[in-house]
Design goal:
Low-confidence stretches: none
Shape: globular
Radius of gyration: 19 Å
Order of helices and strands: EHEHHHEEEEHEHEHEEHEEEHH
Number of strands: 13
Cofactor: dipyrromethane
CATH topology of the largest domain: D-Maltodextrin-Binding Protein, domain 2
Bound molecules: ligand PBG
Largest sheet: 5 strands, mixed
Keywords: Porphyrin biosynthesis, Transferase
GO molecular function: hydroxymethylbilane synthase activity
Protein name: Hydroxymethylbilane synthase
Pfam families: Porphobil_deam, Porphobil_deamC
Length: 306
């Protein structure tokens, strides 16, 4: 690693900067903004190969020794490990829930018939369609502020009645005021590792950031992401997973949705962490096996870029 001040690489979006600045302060690091194709282009992310485009640019900067640490939203990180790099720390998790941000204080149940709700996520689309088949779901992309600006917009072309966003992102951007309903994990589980950050370094440098690691968050994120890995699914697959520990037990619930919301499969497992050498791996293996045995691969297009 370098001798001088640590350099911390991040995407330039407001959300990425907000979460990276907090980590940079804890590490006494200098923030370096890394631009990627995903930030420059307005093309659909799906066409560019998913959110992996952001990750690739950050990893290149690490491997090229331009920075020493990079910060990812853990839910946007492919499950395939990167050669020569390691997740040095998973800091304490923020709120893992999604939120509805609607005009006029509406909730999922009070939105008018046929209301337009924006999301770019197949999981959120399936969950919305399952709960409110009458909604018109609009495929949107862009950063959090762009999405929020469409709610109740004066421009009829862009106007939406609501969007669904991660509470963690809204909190980090100071936009929690836009939330009209918190969607509870018990009936609206979210993406594997949502609300968690991954602090990545070169494989030999993990000590740089090890002090930021929060083991319960790392285990939960590993269990949730393990389901994705075992289903060979990408971050845009219609899959939700929620894990947590309590009193020495670890719990994992994972769901796979039909894209149109017409069906879902759910597997829930628990174990005493002390009884297992790899509690996260074991839990995710059990859940993934149950989902596959129940026909998850026929229910949804889960195979995707990892
Ligand atoms: N896919 C975009 C993305 N990646 C991470 C977050 C913020 C929440 C988090 O850290 O999990 C968001 C925005 C959103 O889903 O609303």
């Amino acid at each position: 690693m370098s001798v001088g001040k640590l350099r911390l690489g991040t995407r330039g979006s407001a959300l990425a900067l907000a979460q990276s600045q907090a980590i940079a302060e804890k590490l006494g690091a200098e923030v370096v903004v890394i631009e990627s194709e995903g930030d420059r282009s307005t093309e659909s992310l799906a066409l560019m190969g998913g959110t992996g485009v952001f990750v690739t640019a950050l990893r290149h900067a690490l491997l090229a020794n331009e920075v020493d640490v990079v910060i990812h939203s853990f839910k946007d990180l492919p499950t395939a490990p990167a050669d020569g790099l390691a997740i040095a720390a998973v800091p304490p998790r923020a709120d893992a829930r999604d939120a509805l941000c609607a005009r006029d204080g509406f909730t999922l149940d009070t939105l008018p018939e046929g209301a337009k709700v924006g999301t770019g996520s197949p999981r959120r689309r399936a969950q919305l369609a399952a709960r409110r088949p009458d909604l018109e779901i609009v495929d949107i992309r862009g950063n959090v502020d762009t999405r929020l600006a469409r709610v109740g917009s004066d421009d009829p072309e862009r106007a939406l009645d609501a969007v669904v966003l991660a509470v963690a992102g809204l909190d980090r951007l100071g936009r929690a005021d836009a939330i009209t309903q918190h969607l509870e994990l018990a009936w609206w589980p979210t993406a594997p590792a949502q609300g968690a950050l991954a602090v990545e370094t070169r494989a030999g440098d993990t000590n740089i950031a090890a002090k930021l690691d929060h083991r319960p968050t790392r285990l939960a994120a590993e269990a949730e992401r393990g389901v994705l890995a075992r289903l060979e699914a990408g971050c845009s697959a219609p899959i939700a997973a929620t894990a947590f520990s309590e009193d020495g037990m670890m719990f994992l619930t994972a769901s796979v949705y039909a894209l149109d919301g017409s069906a879902k499969l759910t597997a829930s497992h628990a174990l005493y962490a002390a009884d297992s050498k790899d509690p996260a791996g074991e839990l995710s293996a059990r859940a993934a096996t149950e989902l596959l045995d129940a026909g998850a691969a026929d229910l949804a297009p889960i195979r995707g870029s990892r």
